[in-house]
Design brief:
The complex is a heterodimer of chains A (268) and B (357).
Chain A: H1 2-31, H2 43-48, H3 51-84, H4 88-96, H5 103-114, H6 119-126, H7 138-163, H8 167-174, H9 179-190, H10 192-207, H11 211-215, H12 224-235, H13 238-267
Helix pairs in contact in A: 1-13, 3-7, 3-10, 7-10, 8-9, 10-13, 12-13
Chain B: H1 2-28, E1 36-42, H2 48-58, E2 61-67, H3 70-79, E3 86-87, H4 91-99, E4 133-146, E5 170-173, H5 176-186, H6 196-207, E6 213-217, H7 220-226, E7 232-236, H8 237-246, E8 250-253, E9 261-267, H9 275-286, H10 288-298, H11 305-310, H12 313-316, H13 325-330, H14 338-353
Parallel strand pairs in B: 1-2, 1-3, 5-6, 5-7
Antiparallel strand pairs in B: 4-7, 4-8, 4-9
Classes of the chains: A mainly alpha (268), B alpha/beta (357).
């Protein structure tokens, strides 16, 4: 009886996985073998290896890497300082708070902030730097993306830092390690799991960003996400859209595998 | 186990209760099968007062839903989940929906007000004899410019966009047919051209425009131009009239090489239930007074000649939105190029977007 009821509790989970994880992936792979007119073909895959899509892939990876790097650069010190503050839960809440607001709204706000006659330029102007084009540049794209992803980076790092046993730091200091050595040899290796899961949480969605590329980068940055959106909504070339999605899934699996292994190694 | 069953049961009970409440609320407000009309139209594309007037006149309750692209609308009608009685697709979408058997033929004898429509807008290539569609609005694609930011210069042709003085000053609407279309037009080719050599020529010409382009955006283009974020924009005429209403420094021109002439027509999709109601609504909207009121509210060009006569002179005499016959000659309607060619246009557009400054 006990075994049977345990299996019974598994049913919703298995159903969920089958319906919302496996079935969509199978459908995507299936669609990727059809052209616009519904004929079976491998052309979509051949097309992916043409310079246009390869450059797009390279672009996506490059920007995703930049976004992840800058998020980490901001998030690690933030998380570290958070663990030292008095009301850390409150501060953490304040950092997570913006992620409760709709993404589109935040992005629209940046159009206003970064515009030629927006707030940022008004400040620059009064300080005597003159007006510059901020909107529709690489800078604004990376900046806004980093802003949006920071909570996802801070949270796992904060948790990893919290879990760390503080006596290890005292031990390191007692044994004569300098502040920097303690951080490099003790703190950072112990929180690497937080860093990798943070990087995964940022890098993978950053690969397929699409809305920000239009609203903030004015379609001057074209990523795989943009191409998928266009193929599904405008061209109705579902085959090509699905093919790009297949490559994104592969890329994500590789990323997970790569970062996952490091985590295991450091745990030992 | 018991808890789980109890949980499921309470969810079911709650769901049925809610279903009962909605159906009760709907019927108490008069929303039931026979006397409702579901209209599926572009956002902000009708004077809401006209809907109220129609409800009062006929006693039919109108359910009004909106879409923001032909493709999204077609997908929803194809799936057939909702019963739309009237929709307002653009011309190329109409010919595609016809091919896919998504439309019902229209009986002209049930539309006495159809005589008010200008002959020019009837019997066009996308729908011969208006078998499936009735004109609603029409317009052009052109250039919106801010004369003040351009030091008094005013573009008159597509080729003016390539002027080096416009460096980083142009906003384009994010549409493959519009952008490739004006690329072809600037070379004096048809915007329905399918000749590969011509398309490649247009593509390399567009590549040379890259330094002048500030951004390629969607609906935000209206807000950005009104805020003087850029001096020049390529937009649809209706958007232009809306932007000009917000910022008086802006002006609109239909380029002399020719441009796109588009139509949004009313159709009855296959999903329709209240077909009589759909005819009543179409006839209501074709009435010159109602059409004039709608045109004044929406700002697009009306195909209704008797409504045009009712409009004030400063609207009906405005050559920017009701171009002269000579210019109209040079305007072209988008042909349905077929899925394959459309995919090719999009491919070219994607390559164009990938050019870095």
């Amino acid at each position: 009886m006990a075994v049977r009821s345990r299996n019974f509790y598994l049913v919703p989970y298995l159903l969920w996985i089958a319906l919302f994880v496996i079935a969509p992936i199978v459908l995507i792979v299936y669609y990727s073998f059809f052209d616009v007119e519904g004929n079976f073909t491998f052309d979509n895959y051949a097309k992916f290896f043409t310079p246009v899509y390869l450059r797009m892939t390279l672009n996506s990876f490059w920007y995703a890497l930049l976004i992840t790097f800058f998020s980490l650069l901001v998030a690690y010190p933030t998380a570290y300082l958070l663990t030292k503050t008095k009301h850390k839960q409150l501060w953490l809440l304040l950092i997570i708070l913006p992620s409760w607001i709709n993404l589109l709204l935040k992005t629209y706000a940046f159009i206003g902030l970064f515009g030629t006659y927006g707030f940022t330029n008004a400040v620059l102007d009064t300080l005597g730097f003159g007006r510059h084009q901020i909107l529709f540049t690489d800078f604004s794209f990376v900046f806004v993306s980093v802003y949006i992803f920071i909570p996802f980076m801070v949270l796992p790092i904060f948790n990893a830092l919290e879990e760390m046993n503080p006596t290890l730091i005292y031990a390191a200091r007692d044994l004569g390690a300098s502040g920097w050595t303690t951080f490099r040899r003790v703190v950072f290796p112990l929180t690497i799991s937080g860093v990798t899961s943070g990087c995964q949480a940022v890098f993978i969605p950053a690969l397929s960003l699409f809305m920000i590329t239009r609203l903030i980068a004015g379609n001057r940055v074209i990523t795989l996400g943009t191409a998928i959106e266009q193929h599904f909504l405008v061209t109705q070339d579902w085959g090509m859209g699905a093919t790009i999605a297949v490559f994104l899934i592969i890329a994500m699996a590789v990323t997970m595998l790569f970062t996952g292994n490091r985590e295991v190694r450091t745990k030992r | 186990m018991k808890q789980l069953i109890r949980l499921f049961a309470s969810v079911f009970i709650a769901a049925f209760a809610l279903m009962y409440v909605t159906s009760y609320l709907n019927s108490s407000q008069g929303y039931s099968g026979g006397n409702t009309l579901t209209i599926y139209n572009w956002g902000d594309y009708i004077d809401p007062e006209l809907i109220a007037a129609f409800e009062e006149e006929t006693g039919i309750k109108v359910i009004y839903q909106t879409f923001d692209s032909n493709e999204a609308m077609m997908t929803k009608i194809e799936q057939g989940g909702t019963t739309f009685d009237i929709s307002v697709p653009s011309e190329y979408a109409i010919s595609k929906m016809k091919e896919d058997n998504l439309l019902l033929p229209i009986d002209h004898s049930k539309l006495p007000n159809l005589t008010h429509i200008d002959e020019r807008f009837m019997n066009l290539s996308f729908d011969p004899n208006n078998e499936y569609s009735i004109p609603y609005f029409w317009g052009t694609v052109g250039i919106v410019y801010n004369a003040e930011l351009l030091d008094g210069k005013a573009p008159t042709s597509w080729n003016d966009l390539w002027d080096p003085a416009l460096k980083n000053q142009i906003l384009l609407v994010d549409g493959a047919r519009e952008v490739i279309g004006f690329g072809l037009n600037s070379l004096h080719y048809s915007l329905n051209d399918t000749d590969e050599a011509h398309l490649q020529e247009a593509k390399s010409k567009l590549a040379a425009l890259t330094p002048n382009i500030k951004a390629i955006v969607g609906d935000e283009i209206k807000m950005l131009l009104a805020n003087e974020e850029a001096a020049v924009g390529v937009v649809w005429s209706g958007d232009a009239s809306e932007i000009m209403g917000e910022n008086e420094k802006l002006d609109y021109v239909v380029p002399e090489e020719g441009s796109n002439l588009w139509f949004d027509n009313m159709v009855i999709p296959k999903t329709a239930r209240n077909i009589e109601g759909a005819y009543a609504f179409m006839n209501f909207m074709l009435d010159p007074e109602h059409a004039a009121q709608n045109a004044e509210y929406v700002g697009y060009s009306t195909p209704n000649k008797d409504a045009l006569a009712l409009l004030p002179e400063d609207i009906s005499g405005d050559e920017r939105f009701y171009p002269s016959p000579e210019l109209t000659e040079k305007l072209e309607v988008y042909d349905n190029l077929g899925k394959k060619m459309l995919a090719h246009y999009n491919e070219l557009f994607l390559e164009f977007k990938m050019h870095r400054k």
